[in-house]
Amino acid sequence: MKTDKYYFEQSLAPIIALLFGVANLIWQNLFTCKDPTMIISKSIDISFIIFGFLLTVLALILQTTKKIRNRNLYPRLIRFNKRIAYLSLTAGFYSLIYSSVFSSISTTIYKEYFVSIYIFVFVWIIIDLILFIRIFYKLAEEDEI
After folding, report:
1. Using CA atoms, how far apart are residues 53 and 116, in angstroms rounded to an integer?
2. pLDDT given at position 71
3. In this structure, are residues 126 and 80 in contact, taking their beta carbons and an 8 Å threshold?
4. Which residue range is the domain that position 66 belongs to?
5. Residue 104 included in any domain
6. Banded pLDDT at 37 (limits 50, 70, 90)
7. Residue 58 belongs to some domain of the structure
8. Based on the structure, what is the number of domains in the chain?
9. Is residue 75 a part of any domain in this protein?
10. Domain for residue 27, yes or no?
11. Residue-level pLDDT at 88
12. Which three-class secondary structure string do you get for the chain?
């Protein structure tokens, strides 16, 4: 049976990320920088580094003992790992597409929408990554990984 905590963990990051993305559309000077294209192009590295980190942690988790796999935190850890891995892969490919296609054809009207979508995905990744690390350390405190 799914608890309130499950729904909280599942919806916290997307809701906060959506608020950041919408805030960027409403108040366009809220998250301003000189060149948002540069930030998105640099985030290609960040997204794929997070993706590689999560795959490494997943390999580490899968090599653990059965004692850890039987704990209640284990499915949550795997679920977060999978979700953040897909999100970081999505953010990396979105950054690649934005850097190569959208930045050359977008006007100032559409640029805010593209940047808001990226802010939405990136904030979602950061919040989920924080929750993932919290769960990982909870699991590691009680047993050695």
Report:
1. 25
2. 79
3. no
4. 35-142
5. yes
6. low
7. yes
8. 1
9. yes
10. no
11. 92
12. CCCHHHHHHHHHHHHHHHHHHHHHHHCCCCCCCCCHHHHHHHHHHHHHHHHHHHHHHHHHHHCCCHHHHCCCHHHHHHHHHHHHHHHHHHHHHHHHHHHHHHHHHCCHHHHHHHHHHHHHHHHHHHHHHHHHHHHHHHHHHHCCC
How big is the CA angle at 122 (ends 34 and 76), to the nearest 5 degrees? 165
Q: What is the pTM of this model?
A: 0.80
pLDDT confidence tier of residue 85, bands split at 50, 70 and 90:
very high
Q: Diameter of the chain by CA atoms?
A: 55
* Site of tokens 């796999």: 69
25 burial type by CB count under 10 A (0-12 exposed, 13-18 middle, 19+ buried): middle
Over residues 120-125, mean pLDDT = 89
CA-angle at 32, arms to 31 and 37, nearest 5°: 105
What percent of the chain is modeled with pLDDT above 70? 83
For residue 92, which of 65, 114, 121 has the smallest C-alpha distance? 121
pLDDT of 144 higher than 60:
no
> Per-residue confidence at 39, pLDDT binned at 50, 70, 90?
confident
